[in-house]
């Protein structure tokens, strides 16, 4: 019997992601066009009903012990003046994508790569050579293990999980599969496969400039497909393998939602245009940093391979991509000139949303006014008749 | 592995400076975070100056034509990525002495390992044979795009020390591989088995 519960729990997790991701769209509908001003500034006129939260506005000079960490304060006191947000609540948001990525993204491809797969072209078929999943160490370990896992009171042994991997993931794995060489997704993969490694052995390699542009275009175009067009066919057909993009996006939205619902920006609340603007800019810069990072890494790898300097394995290109992605988005958050630019975009998005909201309300008001006056007018006329 | 013997001066200059993007980005991080540092600004400017002098000399005297002249200077320049990103992590964790010593030891260990086992590392990188080589290659399954996207999410969410340590680890990993690449300067026609 197929282990249906695994599929069910996967669907449950995905459903939760979808619900979390739809929150921003709900909140546009419920958004209040008047943005809460936030807590009153110390020294300012304090109205009786104002939500005063002095902990969030602690001046490091006033209290050397620092703020209350539970409310987003800085435990090290003066450190905040250096401009780095050391203990942002989004920290967890950093770890989970990595863990998810290593489980959801590596598994299918690793089954093939681990056995040293090679791509052979025969006619219009690209055949992936390599042994199948049951030769894989993970499968063997699981099947021959005596491990027992407790899943909501149900006992599951290693063999079940191993068989699930073999049946579900192994079939999607690359090894032993024949792909249509002319399929766009396969072609993109083959291009990468050739660009970073094998074509360095080509006696007449393309020129440096064309190789650099090729690498840049290739990474940028796949990045676009995998991370931006999250519901496109390319992203969907690869199932678990390429889920990284939109799951990362989901996590980004999820943690912003947390910030506004219960975290640092609780005073704004979910029904504020600030929240939607934060989701939009956060997602945009994250994806942009990813695209830029992998594009730069691809350009470097392509150029150096053409010059015969170094042939980078995919994992090294990946490391370079990680480097650039992290540095670019970190710079956007923490380097003042870049942060100003980002905040400017954030402000513009917020202004736009507020404008739309106000207009919608205005239209509503206008309609109401017209309707009432029409009714009044009709009433008057009708009254005059009798 | 094919080594293109002919190369124009312009192509070499492009290649050199494309390879220097990573050290320069790491250098920028070492200057800018947590506060702007004038000392590290001078160090990075010296690094750029040295690069400019090398490209001029190499272009005039055609030093980049032989494999050693082409590969080794780029390798040396690229290895500054490790130094600068270690400085980035060191400065962001408060410039403590023990951290400085630890980072120096890690960096030197990477370079020494990279040079000593250069053939093995190249072989494992391009066509993994051993268990560990395959384990590392498996990470490539995330694909550069996936890596970069995680980098993007990490960089905007995680704290400075965490991002800096990720940057330090990736650049030291790349320095290890680039140092191993010196083997190809010695044997330009070597191919992985």
Automatic annotation (TrEMBL), chain A:
The keyword Transmembrane applies. Keywords: Membrane, Transmembrane, Transmembrane helix. The chain crosses the membrane at residues 304-332. Residues 39-80 are annotated as: Disordered. It comes from the Bacteria. Residues 39-50 have a biased composition (Low complexity). This is Uncharacterized protein. It comes from Melghirimyces thermohalophilus.
UniProtKB/TrEMBL annotation, chain B:
This is Uncharacterized protein. Keywords: Membrane, Transmembrane, Transmembrane helix. The chain crosses the membrane at residues 12-33, 39-64, 71-90, 96-115, 136-155, 161-183. It comes from the Bacteria.
